Amino acid sequence: MSILTSIVFKASQPMFKLLVKLSLERIAELTGVSKTMIGQIERGGSSPTITTIWKIANGLKISFTSLINNPQPDTKVVLKSEIQTLSEDNGKYRVYPYFPFEDDKRFEVYSIEIEKGGFLSADSHREGTEEFLTVFEGELTVRVNNNEYTVRNGDSIRFKADKPHDYLNSGETLTRLSMILYYPT
Known about the structure:
Structural class: alpha+beta
Number of helices: 5
Helix content: 10-25%
Oligomer: single chain
Strand order of the largest sheet: 1-2-3-10-5-8
Shape: globular
């Protein structure tokens, strides 16, 4: 699904009115993603990487999942098999967006699987954003603010995600974790 089509169906009405007025050139300027790439994504000629989707979401000041997920009903069991899996690092880093951002909530919930040696370098999220990670299997190294933290099975970490940060499976087995992104008002 193209970015603009996705935004048309998923963004709030005020956001939609703003984005309709933006040219590809302006979207490229705001996001740091080339005009050519934005055009290819819009036409469905290219599937964006996780990093590209994050750049677009951050540049347009909208949530990551608003670009990839449909709004959810009041109650629904979310089956992993029905989630659009996103991957990076040749499939070693996989993201499952279980609970996407909603206008009346300030968070998103993800499940993440990282193969041994898998890595993702994430751009800054908007100011004040926090990440809450809990490792359920394996070992994760998080680099943020020039510091490195090792989080093991059963442990958690919280950090300000408005600076670039990295995730690395530094263990010997698959790492499984949950991620909650909290956005300030």
